[in-house]
Input
Amino acid sequence: MQHPYDQPQFYGRRRGRKLRPAQDAALQYGLANYGITDAMLAQPPINPRQWFDANCDSLCLEIGFGGGEHLAARASQSPHTGFIGAEPFINGVASLCRHVIDQNLNNIRVWSDDIRLLLPHLEHHCLQAVYILFPDPWPKQRHQARRILQPEMLDMLAQLICSGGELLLASDDPTAKSWLLANSIRHDSFVWQAETAADWRTPPLDWPGTRYMQKAEKQGRKSAWFRFSRV
Ligand SMILES: C[S@@+](CC[C@H](N)C(=O)[O-])C[C@H]1O[C@@H](n2cnc3c(N)ncnc32)[C@H](O)[C@@H]1O
Output
């Protein structure tokens, strides 16, 4: 049977404004040096640790990193952690590459495509944490199948996150908040870590923020952070 992720349909934008020469140069340099290529996936299952320096002691994944601010900040905070970022929007990838170059980060690897094409290649239990932050809400009921956190995605993440590892979800959108929470709570492999309302109303301690969160705050929308632990 064909796996649903063999040919996933991506509904977001892959391109925005034409890149300026400096952005394009950063993108080309970044992808050449930090991009995850098909050759790197040739013999699955892949333990992505081999893509990083020998001192890399754990791996985290951000799905839909947007402009890459959060990913770059995390990578700078934790130089011994390897960070994988996935984002099909090429202008966002160019922005992340700029951060990587400017901050001289060596612990980020970039998948510039739909995450669903990468996940099936990875070794089980290889990830310590996965971040899905302010995903596109697709608020209309008829677009529900376009939301990134589907039950199949949770099944896949349950295989890839190690026992005791973390799944961090965040959103400012009411439909997305309910969707993220309801689906994850329903999944047997994840346990919601919140004990009081403050646990989901306030960001995690080391939270660097994201561009979409800043936009939401400026427009007066409240964000929520849902932290799940892999049992
Ligand atoms: C609303 S933006 C949020 C960006 C960023 N996380 C932030 O908070 O600023 C959602 C991002 O998820 C990306 N995305 C959507 N589906 C994806 C997929 N299947 N794989 C990887 N990224 C995806 C989109 O391209 C978009 O950049």
User: Anything to note?
Assistant: The chain has a mean pLDDT of 96.
